[in-house]
Write a structure and sequence with these properties.
By secondary structure, the chain is of the alpha+beta class. Helices cover about 20% and strands about 35% of the residues. A hairpin with a 2-residue loop joins strand 4 and strand 5. The longest helix is centred in the last third of the chain and has 16 residues. It is globular, with a radius of gyration of 18 Å. The N and C termini lie far apart (about 45 Å).
């Protein structure tokens, strides 16, 4: 069997050192659309080194290591066809504000393997800590089509009941034509996001935007709209990738606040009749 769940779960964690600086943070912020308007004081918090605040979703690219969806596929017990792999979801827990520069230890392991019948789901967990203690925990949920059916644990459902009522806020965020080309400079070099021929082979009419780019755009919209631009208020952020985004489209981001510490979010592509892009999206905050 291409996925040996017991072997994957028993494998020793992989540990390595990562480092980043203010230039890496600024490049990431530009990659998710920050800096428009360029002289706006609220945007300068993301782009000017003397005022720099780090959006927590930077954790998905810090150190320019391979995203969890890629690194998990090289773990013991995992031998799969890349063409069958989908990045199904991403969740992040922030233990304290991320500094604009630093060195830390990243420890990655397969935290769970679920049998969904027609697919297997891998949960790749990465814990990052520096000399002062834990910084963040990233979970990447990876769907591998055709690899389920061995009778294993189905795992928890990630589907949530839809938010009730009209959204409190709705904002639209345009995605630049070159957004994927800029975002990939933060470390995800998958040609699916740049090479038209590769994208066609993968079944898309043209290159698509990175799901984690949409993930960052959405968190920035929530922070700027409902959290007063204060990145330190974010405690956790999770989503399910429900559809693709093409560079040049516009994202419609709808937000609900069911209580004082939670924001529910739904993201869709405006030009494709509000086709879902991110679903079951939750930001918890102080």
């Amino acid at each position: 069997m291409p996925i040996d769940a017991a072997k994957a779960l028993a494998a020793e964690p992989r540990t390595g050192e990562i480092s980043w600086n203010s230039k890496d943070v600024q490049l990431y912020h530009l990659g998710i659309g920050a800096g428009v308007p360029a002289t706006d004081p609220d945007e300068l918090r993301y782009t000017l080194e003397s005022r720099l605040h780090v959006l927590p979703s930077f954790a998905t690219v810090a150190g320019s290591g391979s995203p969890g969806v890629i690194s998990s596929l090289s773990m013991p017990g995992i031998e799969v066809d890349l063409a069958k792999v989908l990045h199904g979801g991403q969740s992040l827990t922030v233990h304290r504000p991320i500094p604009a520069g630093g060195t830390a230890t990243a420890t990655g392991r397969i935290a769970a393997v679920y049998d969904k019948g027609k697919a297997a789901v891998l949960v790749m967990r990465t814990d990052v800590a520096d000399a002062d203690g834990p910084l963040w925990t990233n979970d990447a949920q990876i769907f591998v089509r055709g690899e389920g059916g061995w009778g294993g644990d189905r795992g928890p459902s990630t589907r949530l009941e839809p938010p009730v009522g009209d959204p409190e806020r709705t904002v639209e965020r345009p995605v630049r034509e070159d957004q994927a080309l800029l975002y990939r400079l933060s470390g995800d070099w998958n040609p699916l996001h740049a090479d038209p021929e590769f994208a066609k082979v993968a079944g898309f009419e043209r290159p698509i935007l990175h799901g984690l780019c949409t993930y960052g755009i959405t968190l920035k919209a929530v922070v700027d709209t409902l959290l007063g631009g204060d990145v330190s208020r974010v405690r956790s952020y999770g989503t399910r990738f429900a559809g693709v985004v093409y560079p040049g489209e516009t994202l419609r981001i709808r937000m609900w606040r069911p209580d004082g510490g939670t924001v529910r979010v739904a993201v869709s592509a405006v030009q494709r009749d509000d086709a879902p892009v991110l679903a079951d999206t939750v930001v918890t905050h102080t």
